[in-house]
Amino acid sequence: MNQLLVLDKIKLAYPHQKQLKVVVENFSLSLQEGEIGCLLGPSGCGKTTVLRSIAGFEPVYAGEIKLANIVLSAPDKMVEPENRHIGMMFQDYALFPHLTIEQNIAFGLKNKDKAYIKSRTAEMLSLINLADTRKRYPHELSGGQQQRVALARAIAPSPKILLLDEPFSNLDTDSRERLAFEVREILKENKLSAILVTHNQAEAFAIADKIGIMSHGKLLQWSTPNEIMHNPNSKEVSDFIRRDSLSTLREQAFMR
Ligand SMILES: Nc1ncnc2c1ncn2[C@@H]1O[C@H](COP(=O)(O)OP(=O)(O)OP(=O)(O)O)[C@@H](O)[C@H]1O
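Structure tokens predicted for ABC transporter ATP-binding protein:
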């Protein structure tokens, strides 16, 4: 299979008091076509920053990001976000409240012809099983339904890859895991590749082909869920998996 996304030794930083605060360093991973990758790690380890750099919202200070063999980011190169052919479903990337469900889905298709917009929107609505809601407004749908619409909106323009940042975090535990499985099915049926960011281990294991465990801006391991679970490459990874399992169980106990 072909490598679709390659992050090669990237360094990411934020300006801080006239200096640079490095938050991610020497970070490499590759994702093949059709694969779903998931970055997992504690709050502040740099997951969102990595995702934002792939989307083109943060520059790289070293290394490069390539998508389908094209360099998107390097210290001397920055392809604009709108020219990257990347779909996004971010935590704060809510639906437009004044647009109907079908208008929301059609949002990224503005430059296409009318017939295509109509058929693509109908296709997306049936993909997420919400054809009967097309004339409704976002506030008339449940949180899980709204997230499915956000997914359809991101998929509609046929991006090369989807980036999902904590897409299920506003949902209760049961809906969260159900939706994670549903999203996996939709992505797999459509042979779509994605990178998802979460701090919820159950979600990562439910959805991903590859999981990356992050700590303090470093990628500790990038492997299949099975490898991560049964063959962690360091004590830090095995401690994280164990500690995180406990906190997920605790979180579930409180939320039920
Ligand atoms: N705009 C910014 N300016 C300066 N520092 C930032 C900015 N955004 C993030 N940071 C810092 O970069 C580091 C990584 O943050 P990031 O949001 O990528 O972590 P995260 O793993 O996604 O965390 P969370 O799970 O809480 O969303 C943190 O120390 C954070 O404080």
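The chain has a mean pLDDT of 90.
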